[in-house]
Amino acid sequence: QAKYKQALADMTPAARGTFNAFLSLRKAFTAWSRSLQPAIMPNFTRALNGMKNSLPGLTPLVLGAARGIKTLQDRVSA
Fold it and tell me: Are the C-beta atoms of 23 and 15 separated by less than 8 Å?
């Protein structure tokens, strides 16, 4: 706490003004962000659950890609 107060005291008036503006922006952004969470977060949750549920369907694609890479490596190293 003492170091923080000293750092503030050491700032020029212009730097302190910029710092205070940043703190004000951070406070406003936090409040704004939290106010939007009920509308936005369910969409992200749904998207994350959808991605999780789609993983088994990607298995053939991943296995096919692995086979293709192995074939390529086998040909290049032969």
Answer: no
Q: Model pTM?
A: 0.58
Q: Which residues contact 8 (CB under 8 A, 6 or more apart)?
A: 16, 19
- State CA 26 to chain mean position distance: 17
What would the two tokens of residue 36 be? 């939007």
The residue type at 27: K
Q: Give the model confidence (pLDDT) of 32-65 as tens digits.
A: 999 999 999 999 999 999 999 999 999 999 999 9
| Sign of the dihedral defined by the CA atoms of residues 49, 52, 58, 59, in that order | negative
